[in-house]
Amino acid sequence: MDTRFGEYVKAKRLEKDVNLRKLAEILGIVPAYMSDIEKGRRYPPDREKIYKIAEALSLTEDETNEMFDLAAHAKENSISPDLPEYIMGTEKARVALRMARDINASDEDWLKIIEMLEAKEKGDANH
After folding, report:
1. Helices and strands counted in the chain (H then E)
2. Which of the chain's ends, N or C, has fewer CB atoms near its CB within 10 Å?
3. What pLDDT, in 10s, does the model give residues 32-91?
C-alpha cells in the first residue's frame, strides 16, 4: 500500500501543531485508525473526511488538491476523490478527457488548456 498520503497528512498535521488524537476526533474516527492511515496501513478516507482534514489543518487549495491526488495514488486505478462527481456530471469534460486519452495528450497540451481556463477565470473575476 502507498504511504505517501499518510506521510503527507502527518507532515501537515505536525507542521500545523495538531495532535493525532485531535485530528481523529475532528474526523470522527478513533486515533488508532488515524495512525494506521498516516502509516499507510489503511487506505485514505473518503472525500468528506479528506475535506475535513484540509479544513482542520487549514490547508491551501493547492495543498488540498495534492492531498486528493495522493489519495488517488494510494488506490490502483483510482481518480482523485474530488473529481468523479464533476467529471460524471459534465458531459463535455468526459468527451475532452477521452479525446485527450485517444490522442495521448502531452503535458504541454494540457498546459495550453490550463492557461486558457486561467485566462477565462481571470476574465470572469474582472466582470
Report:
1. 8, 0
2. C
3. 999 999 999 999 999 999 999 999 999 999 999 999 999 999 887 788 999 999 999 999
pLDDT at position 75 is: 84
Domain holding 119, by residue range, is 90-125
CATH classification at residue 12:
1.10.260.40
Q: Which three cell numbers stand for residue 54?
A: 484540509
Burial 74-113 (b: 16+ CB within 10 A, else e): beeeeebbbeeeeeeeeeeeeeeeeeeeeeeeeeeeeeee
Distance CA 57, CA 8 (A): 12
Q: Is residue 84 part of a domain?
A: no
SS3 content of the chain, % helix, strand, coil (to 5): 70, 0, 30
Give CA separation, 74 vs 80, 98, 111, in Å.
Answer: 10, 23, 25
Q: Which set of grid coordinates corresponds to residue 6?
A: 499518510
